[in-house]
């Protein structure tokens, strides 16, 4: 029962039972009691209760039990107490694969990914769970190429990836825009699992194909799902919005509701984004109202931000400002940023200045804000203000970050930074692009003559 409560939505009830058990003295406490109590502490993120339970475990002679110590490493590590987790690890007389994997995972997700990788290399035995922990750690830290390399190492060791591993690799492929890697992992899991996947994997595949720009592949995955859950519908709505097909997002949403699937908060973020990019102001405001009135979903800061962006992009600057002033929460940087960009497009200097100054109070060295303000003043031909902004940038040492792009060539991702030709493959491709542009120009001049 303690174990059941530790995995339920009421983990605190584990301690009520423990106290009853402790008072009665029967049955006797054993090595399984404390790991489940510590699990309840982890779910509750209650370090103080965890430390008390640790003391109780030591008092009753289970302080050096491997199950108790593994649970302690997870409790401390998952709550950012990496040094405490490492102390427990260092004091252990016996360690198993779960011990190492737990510490690797905690370091990768809440500490240093370099430390996690060092521990991973030191592991005497590695399991698919160990690889998954490290792969997901790389993905969470944005180190996607390393995640894919580790997946290849897993395969070379003859290990069978689990759903967590697959989710990590799909996410890495999506964020790299590596369509080849994404298609390969799709084919791989299809050969292992057939054509029917878990809803999470379907959702991840749809998202990956959209992020890699392959809309048709995303549609094929979606259409191949027999029982579509909210994840698959949301991924489609979001993906269509991402590519500018706002009307299609609205159509998908209505089809989803008609099929009896209830939308969630993420669904509405995608739907409102679709309305924004398609300029569907009335529909966007209508769906925002329906969120709470019809579906019982309380709007979050993301939803309010979508509405601000919706109104701003449509040129309804005054309405956007009024909406921000009447919100039940404080406007954030994303909302002010959306307002600033809209003011630059629609040449509203007064509100643009207000937005820029708010943003600069939060990020005084952000060159992108200065560049937007500079563009705003230049369009308005306010040359004195242009000079003033340039002077401020120079005094603060604020410089615009160079543009950066990723391209995928034969399964390898290359990063290009504007003006940088130091990386050999990038240099080779850059020179080929320059040569192609030169040839095109010469051909154009020849044809013109």
Which regions are unreliable across 5 or more consecutive residues at pLDDT < 50?
Answer: none
**Secondary-structure element order, N to C:** HHHHHHHHHHHHHHHHHHHHHHHHEEH
- Count of discrete alpha- or pi-helical segments spanning 4 or more residues: 25
Strand content: under 5%
Mean pLDDT equals 85
Secondary-structure class: mainly alpha
Portion in helices? over 70%
Task: Give the tally of β-strands.
Answer: 2
Q: Give the strand line-up of the largest sheet.
A: 1-2
For the largest beta-sheet, the strand count, sense and barrel status come to: 2 strands, antiparallel
Radius of gyration: 27 Å
Span between termini: 87 Å
Global outline: globular
Question: Could you explain the architecture of this structure?
Answer:
The structure is a single chain. This protein is an all-alpha fold. It has helices at residues 2-6, 13-24, 33-44, 47-59, 66-78, 82-91, 97-110, 113-122, 128-140, 144-156, 163-176, 179-193, 199-211, 215-223, 230-242, 246-258, 265-278, 281-295, 301-313, 317-326, 333-346, 349-362, 367-379, 383-396, 424-448, and strands at 404-409, 412-417. Strands 1-2 form a two-stranded antiparallel sheet. The radius of gyration is 27 Å and the shape is globular. The termini are far apart. The relative contact order is 0.04. The mean pLDDT is 85.
